[in-house]
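Lab notebook, bench 4. Continuing the backlog of folding jobs that were queued last week. Each job is logged with the same field layout so the records can be merged later without manual cleanup. Today's entry covers Ig-like domain-containing protein, a 215-residue chain. Filled in by technician R.K.

JOB TYPE: sequence-to-structure
TARGET: Ig-like domain-containing protein
LENGTH: 215
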Amino acid sequence: FSSEVKAKGDSSAVFGEDASFSCSLSDLKRASQITWQRVRKNNSIQDLATYSKMYGENVMEPKVVFMEASLNSSSIIVRNVSVEDEACYVCTFHVYPSGSVRKQTCLTVHGITRVITEKLRDHWSEELQKRNVLLRCSATGKPAPVITWSGIPVAGESVHAESIENKDGTTTVTLNTTLEHLGAQGGHVDCVVTSPGLGNVTARVNFSKVDRGGE
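JOB STATUS: finished
OUTPUT FIELD FOLLOWS
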């Protein structure tokens, strides 16, 4: 029966974007109802939306919008995709009296979900005429993001990195960097987060000019 349904849709999407799916009956049969479901990797099933001649459109998932709804063709959009939307999307036509026919399209979600920068320490030594700054940049994404610093004004930094795999399939990478030879002048550095194939996300950390009368 599956050959009677034609399905197409996005196989991958970036966090925060929309994903679209559509399906249609390949012959002139007309269904009594169309059902959209989401099937996750653990085989849990969630009803997303239905359309029938008697009841019209019924959407159970707030992020789902019907773009087309008829008895032999249907398309939906999933808004603002997140990790929870990574699943297979199943379109089922309930055809009387022959039964149900279905097709699925599976979606992978990737990209960067969060970038956080912190200035953990900013100490000026009047005796040494030297500034000691501890910076942290943390990024979460799928696959694991790569973090680098851009605009560090002088050499002498030390770096500590750690990586944690989260239960939702994303990875959080944290980079702690100590800058040991900064002067009293103000400035900034950029945390550059790279996700393979998606380009960069940049978050800036600013330094104020040091009050030479104290720290």
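OBSERVATION: The CA atoms of residues 51 and 98 lie 19 Å apart.
SIGNED: R.K.
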